[in-house]
Amino acid sequence: MCYIMRSRPPTAAILSSVLPLVLRWNQVPGQTSVQSSCPSRVMFSMLVVDPDLIDYNGLKLSFGSWSSGIYQISISSDVNHASSRTPGTHLAGGNGRPVEGAITFKPDNSSYWFHFFSDGVTHLTSKPLPPGKEYKVLVGRGSGGTGPFYGKFGRALTETSDPPPGSLVLGSHGDVYAPGGQSVFKDPVSGRYVMVYHYVRKNETFDGQSYLGINFLDFSSGWPVVVD
């Protein structure tokens, strides 16, 4: 089973497929889409992006809508349709705050689930954004995979406040600008936790080439910390 996102601004949808996928990535000005060569089923239609599936008291699918927040729904046992009402449980963001790309993850030896997400605006122009407004990776944690999730100072990720809630995992630094679009997993070879993400370089055109970043994470403090 695969979940893919299809985006045709100003709408988007998450599709499911039970057959092997052959994907084709199309990107033209004003339109970005991922297409599959196999039949797919539209699960629901709204501005939804970045599907993330976990198994926590049954299958749960989270998705972001950028300015409307990140939500989570239950998925049926046949994994072909939603088994709870949409848009579901509100996990983070909302009220115009730009958040997306959520990953909910539980380290083996932790009692917490961690909700990683990309906050801010990705590199869309040739000029840098006001400091702090660019993409960055934030996190909250909770006792379960369905939230609620809180930052280090106890604020829920769904709160509307300034600065917005969520604890910084990785932001712009050195020549790395606007890191985000992250994924987190445990490396089966080294046994260490890994975060991968994309970014641009400050000394290059901001709307130019993107790079892949790879860092280890350490959870021993109770929060994810980027380490060597």
UniProtKB/TrEMBL annotation:
Leader peptide range in chain numbering? 1-24
> What UniProt keywords are attached to this protein's entry?
Signal
Which PANTHER family has this protein been placed in? ARABINAN ENDO-1,5-ALPHA-L-ARABINOSIDASE, ARABINAN ENDO-1,5-ALPHA-L-ARABINOSIDASE A-RELATED
The identity of this protein, by name, is Uncharacterized protein
User: From which organism does this entry originate?
Assistant: Marasmius oreades
